[in-house]
Amino acid sequence: MRRLNFFLLLFLVPFLISSGHKHEYYVSVTNIEYVQKEESVQIITQIFIDDFERMIRERFDERITLAIDNESILVDDYMTRYLTDKLEVTINNKSQKFNFLGKEYKEDIAYCYLEISDIKAISSIEVKNRVLFDIYPDQQNIVRLKINNKNKSYLLIPDNDNCVLNFN
């Protein structure tokens, strides 16, 4: 039953994320792909703009508004700081730091682009994703991994906020 719910949620996420109305579900999607020829792990995190904005206002600056023409230059810094705190990636038992490459807004979603460079090979990866758990107790974070020609998806919740994929 839990597996059926997971696949149903996975199927519905694109529809939930693209609605123009205030959403009833608190979900983020993080895609992580290892690009061997570039020796990099590329990460795209999708978060509802209104949820991200609420978090930034509560944690950093109550005057911030996202996705406007004259958005504060501090937004990238706030996003970087928050994601660095809430999204942890460990590769081959070594904690990794990612570079925040930028963001863009599409409809009601903020897409944050991150990269971990100089990764020669991956024998294991662990992801801890606590994005928005601090403001939404019902928040769920989907993590999709595409590593070494293997695809795996995980549904993370506050009581189970990490996933591990081994290749040994």
Catalogue the unreliable spans: 4-12, 15-21
Strand content: 35-45%
- End-to-end Cα distance, whole Å, is 30 Å
Record field, number of beta strands: 10
Q: Describe the strand arrangement of the main beta sheet, using strand numbers.
A: 5-6-2-1-8-9
**Structural class determined from secondary elements:** alpha+beta
Q: What overall geometry do the principal axes of the alpha carbons give?
A: globular
Mean pLDDT: 90
Largest sheet: 6 strands, mixed
Helical fraction: 10-25%
Number of helices: 3
Order of helices and strands: HEEHHEEEEEEEE
**What is the domain total for the residues?**
1
Q: Tell me the radius of gyration.
A: 16 Å
Pfam family, one: DUF6702
Protein name: Peptidase E
Overview of this protein structure:
It is globular and about 50 Å long. It has helices at 2-17, 49-59, 75-86, and strands spanning 27-35, 40-48, 87-91, 94-96, 99-106, 109-117, 124-129, 140-147, 150-156, 162-166. It is of the alpha+beta class. This is Peptidase E.
